[in-house]
Write a structure and sequence with these properties.
alpha/beta, TIM Barrel, six-stranded parallel sheet, three-stranded parallel sheet, about 10% strand
Length: about 350
């Protein structure tokens, strides 16, 4: 049962739009990116926090350093990544704004424009084949508390290409309780409306920072929309007891809905710092959620990775370690990219 949540928001939300009512210029939700089933393994990373480093921490958009510079992405065999529009809880006296989301999106635009190696999915050739040395960029929202001011604005961001929306970050907000919040309540009434709008628009809800109660509240909404539940950058609580990691019951729920959980490489969410500890986390995720429901969500530039996987160039070492632990090639490819691509092909029932 979900915990009690605040009900007074002072905001009147407009009716939820159907997919058919959205802007006709909205991009198709089915990914155009196609990857070969043989040859070097390519990675699709569901959470890379570089826009935060550039927008808030002063890293030049040329990315002269850090774990995910363009050369490191290429060396690591990256095919695609997701840049989050991270809205810190502390902005403007604990209340980030939708204008902040627009400004961070502009930073992502500037990052993509700066690097010949980066391109938005819409820039792919009609075949969907990835040009040599290029990395496809997708966009998400991490901590959507600002949208409590006007939940209808989320549709505008989905039309601009946002694929995943996390209602909350490190603190409880007007939409939901956080996994690391004080109260850890579930989805508020406004939070439920936001999730409905996300699904109706064709994007997916990200539960990575959502409280246990919030995940329970989301489950019936996701089922009503026949939507996969996604945790872009979370691990298993059974392997490392941290509230940001997911309970086995929630991992099973993700598998049952056809979703994915993205392996997070932040040291604080892992049972150890050796590559073998990361492999053991992957194996647990596979054992509980299923091999079709595990992906990558490294949290590079947002967390602190273990030394053996310190930057994007090291991802082939993870693939080799999974093979060495007995995982077959097809399963490794699923975890590295194709599971995530399958989930991003989801469309709401009204659009099918």
């Amino acid at each position: 049962m979900a915990s009690a949540a605040p009900t007074s928001t002072g905001v009147t939300a407009a009716p939820v739009a159907t997919a058919a009512a959205l802007d006709e210029t909205a991009p198709t939700r089915a990914p155009r990116l196609t990857l070969p089933s043989s040859g070097p393994i390519r990675a699709l990373d569901l959470h890379v926090d570089t826009p935060w480093k550039v927008h808030f921490k002063g890293r030049p958009k040329t990315l002269p350093d850090g774990p995910v510079s363009a050369p490191l992405l290429q060396a690591g065999g990256y095919a695609a990544l997701v840049y989050p529009i991270y809205l810190p809880d502390y902005l403007h006296d604990d209340h980030p704004t939708i204008a902040d989301a627009d400004a961070i999106y502009a930073t992502i635009d500037a990052l993509v424009a700066e690097h010949d190696a980066l391109l938005y999915e819409r820039e792919l050739p009609p075949s969907g084949e990835l040009p040599d040395g290029r990395v496809v960029v997708y966009v998400s929202i991490e901590g959507a508390g600002a949208f409590a001011d006007d939940v209808s604005q989320i549709e505008r961001f989905v039309r601009r290409g946002v694929r995943f929306v996390g209602p909350v970050h490190a603190r409880d907000n007007r939409l939901a309780g956080s996994a690391t919040g004080k109260e850890r309540y579930g989805l508020t009434a406004l939070g439920k409306q936001l999730c409905e709008r996300v699904y109706a628009a064709g994007a997916l809800v990200d539960v990575s920072h959502l409280s246990d109660a919030g995940i329970a509240d989301l489950a019936p909404i996701a089922r009503r929309f026949q939507a996969p539940i996604v945790a872009t950058h979370s691990n298993a609580r059974a392997r490392h007891d941290h509230p940001r990691n997911l309970r086995d019951d929630d991992l099973r729920l993700i598998g049952e809905t056809g979703g994915v959980v993205g392996l997070n490489l932040h040291r604080g969410f892992l049972p150890g710092q050796k590559l073998s500890s990361i492999v053991s986390m992957v194996k647990h995720l596979v054992d509980v959620a299923g091999v079709d429901h595990v992906a990558l969500g490294t949290d590079f530039d947002g967390g602190t990775p273990p030394r053996e996987l310190a930057d994007a160039s090291r991802m082939p070492a993870l693939a080799a370690a999974l093979r060495g632990a007995g995982m077959d090639e097809a399963s490794v490819r699923k975890i590295f990219a194709t599971n995530a691509l399958r989930v991003m092909a989801w469309q709401p029932p009204a659009a099918r």
